[in-house]
Amino acid sequence: MKNIKIITFFIIVSLGLQLAIFLFLDWKADQLLNPHYRIDKEYIINESLTEAENYSLSYNNKFLACVLHNNLKIIDLINNRVFNLANNESSLIGYRWLPDRNGLIYFTQSVTNNLKVLNLFSLDFESENQIKPKLDRIISLDIDKILEIEISTYTNNLYILSTNSSNETELIKIDIMKNYNKFNGPGEIITKIKVSNKFGILFLESFEKDQRKTITMLNGSKRTLISDDPNIVLLECSDNLLYTGKLDEGYLTEIYLYKVDNTNKQIDYKNRLLIWQGKIPYKDIKSTSCIDGNLLLKNFNFLYIIEPNGNSKKMKSNNKIVPASTGLMYLELIEDELKTRYYWRSILISSSSRDKN
């Protein structure tokens, strides 16, 4: 009997030791393979960003950008370095990460001989070990404010939705290799734009000259009407998915999904799918499309995750939320006067999860 107890004791100790070693090795492997994206782990940026705004992440979450006092700041989250792009002689009026690589473009505006000049800069983090802005274009344009920037790297086109000094909206297409063109129709007021990076298809939300509201698709020079319902809004698009929503008294109550045909690059607008119903305040809402097809909607302190199959999840934070286009997680920022803390938060949705609110 005594021998049996001794053998049982050693078996239990051996199994416990093996389990401890396995868990330790698994933890170390995870730290080595993915040390910078630990969910719910605190990370520190040794700089205060309390007054920064317009945060966004690069396509693979390695870099975080924001605007602070007319300067563009780039934070290397892997090496914990902060780069400051000062604009002492010009005004920073907009920036945008490239959708498929670690690079971004940004615009500054200066005045030369009483003429407004738009300066287009690019930054490439894939091949450079330091920040070296490249001046790509200088364009004489009457731009008062940039509302949106959309980029298609497949077609080398970028689109700017802006207002001029007369407070008129203008849609400008800039071919990185060539010239620029304006796409507004006579009397048309464009309120929102989204572009498919892969196909270069542009989606527009606008008001026609007769005040009729439309959602249209611009493929080359051909425009296709998707909706003329005044309650339908343009939300987001990915390579082959388009999301629109329905408004009711200031709330987003339904979300629709369209699919772009990979062959002819067209949308069968009559076969839209209703994938979500609920109630989300629409004012000041910001959207992000993820590579997994998910739609992220950020409003005040809430982040809503909508899957193409209709599953959804709502998350709340009293801190700043920065959605990630990779899906799966988002960045939560906690700022103070000396430093900035941040956490990666998971947004995984279980197969049974379906939040209607």
What keywords describe this structure?
357 residues, mainly beta, Neuraminidase, 2 domains, 4-stranded antiparallel β-sheet
How would you describe this structure to a colleague?
It is a single chain. The chain is mostly beta strands. It has 2 domains: 39-140 and 322-347, no CATH class; 146-316, 6 Propeller (Neuraminidase), CATH 2.120.10.30. It contains 1 helix and 28 strands. The strands form 7 sheets. A 4-stranded antiparallel beta sheet has the order 1-28-27-26, with no helix packed on it. A 4-stranded antiparallel beta sheet has the order 2-3-4-5, with no helix packed on it. It is globular and about 95 Å long.
* Beta-strand share of residues: over 45%
Chain oligomer state: single chain
**Count of discrete domains:** 2
What name does the CATH topology of the largest domain carry? Neuraminidase
Rg, nearest Å: 24 Å
- The low-pLDDT segments are 27-33
Rounded to the nearest angstrom, the distance between the terminal CA atoms is: 62 Å
Shape: globular
CATH class of the largest domain: Mainly Beta
> Can you name the CATH architecture of the largest domain?
6 Propeller
Could you give me the name of the CATH homologous superfamily of the largest domain? TolB, C-terminal domain
Main sheet: strands, sense, barrel: 4 strands, antiparallel
Give the strand tally.
28
> What's the rounded overall pLDDT mean?
85
- Which H/E pattern describes the elements? HEEEEEEEEEEEEEEEEEEEEEEEEEEEE
